[in-house]
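Checklist before submission:
- one chain only
- standard amino acids only
- sequence pasted in full

Submission:
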Amino acid sequence: MLNEQIKDRIINISGQFGVYYKDIHSGYSCFEGNADVFIAAGIAKLFLLIEVLRQIDQGEIRRDAVHTLRNEEKVPSIGAITSLHEGIELTVEDLYRVMTTVGDNTAFNILAGLVGINQINQTLSSLGYLHSRVNRFLFDQEGISKGIENYSSVHELGDMFERVLNGQLISSKVSNEIIELLKLQQRDYIIPYHFSDLIGIAHQIGEDEGIRHDAGIVFSKHPFILCMSTNQVDVRKAESAMRDIALLCLNYSIRVN
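Returned file contents:
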């Protein structure tokens, strides 16, 4: 079975490793690994995206609301905002799109300040997610020094993506926008690594020192959900294992359907 193949692939990797798989057609699911809750790194951007889109959906904020960039807001970033000049005007939609598609950390902090960290967690709790949490801004050195971290649960990620796929996370409109945004994810070095470009993948990446995550929906002929998280690992070994697991899952979905 697939779970045994996954177990064999990760058994010799030191650190924390968790893998959740669900085949959409058959309903078969499995979990393998030694942990469910992980330091979230960039996965926290998914939780913030959900809250931003919820507030837009319910009329609490507007997607065309404008934020004027200040230099002191800029943090080290994989994205583009740190390269922009002070005073440029960015809409809420600009911010959540660059946060999601290119992982912009400055956009995360601006949006988290706008919607409120407490509100992100209240929404997660209302959806039944008790382990996934945003507890601080990115590059918050004071919070880091106190050991404050953001967390994600592999099982909860799996449930989030299933609700998204069924149009049931907040609303069908929100769910559809999440899928379309995550399909534009530009960091494609884990789940999509061995796949044809013709296979759509809506996924969120998370990365930091000793940390790798990739979680989402693979829209192959037989779609499936795959959520993989690691902490305290040799990231080169973890990435290799995660790529192999993604291919194992794709082949399994073809074989059983």
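Reviewer check: Residues 6 and 245 are 6 Å apart (CA to CA).
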